[in-house]
Write a structure and sequence with these properties.
about 170 residues; alpha+beta; two-stranded antiparallel sheet; about 15% strand; elongated
């Protein structure tokens, strides 16, 4: 995963989201489970990510005959990348210039969103949101003024996009 880099996202990410195992502090665990979230990059597949993680476990097992590990994919979503020539992106950028006085920055984010599911079905898709922080944290917030600007940008974008599609 560190060898492949996306121009906006960097390398694919992988982290141990949950760890389960052991029966007590003074005993060796007979087994343990690690739940890993592996976020793929555009051009990568879920199957490739599974093979990559299994190869890591196989290398560990080759160095320790007591170690055994298996990867089981529980949820796989395709990676998402907005098309740079997207008509809806052009409509959004025009709307943002009109409402915000500037084009929004094109940035890379790697959370799993429904955007990848829409794009996979051929629906022209972009992601644009309000300013804020703390997604899925105990304290998640959005700037109220940016929410109001966002709603105006989205309404204007929809009107521009639908007029061009007609």
């Amino acid at each position: 995963t560190r060898h492949r880099r996306h121009p906006l996202l960097g390398p694919g990410s992988m982290h141990a989201a949950q760890l389960h195992g052991g029966t007590g502090r003074s005993t060796f665990s007979a087994s343990a489970t690690v739940c890993i979230e592996r976020r793929t990059l555009p051009g990568e597949s879920g199957e490739g990510a599974v093979r990559e993680m299994q190869a890591i476990l196989d290398r560990l097992a080759s160095n320790d005959p007591m170690f055994e590990g298996h990867v089981v994919a529980v949820l796989v979503r395709p990676p998402f990348e907005a098309r740079p020539d997207s008509p809806i992106l052009a409509a959004l950028e025009e709307s943002a210039v009109h409402i915000l006085g500037r084009r929004p920055a094109r940035v890379g984010e790697n959370p799993w969103m429904d955007a990848s599911l829409y794009a996979e079905r051929g629906i022209d898709t972009i992601v644009f949101g309000a300013a804020g922080a703390g997604a899925h944290a105990d304290e998640e917030w959005a700037d109220v003024d940016s929410v109001l600007s966002l709603s105006a940008c989205l309404a204007t974008t929809a009107a521009r996009y639908c007029n061009e599609a007609v």
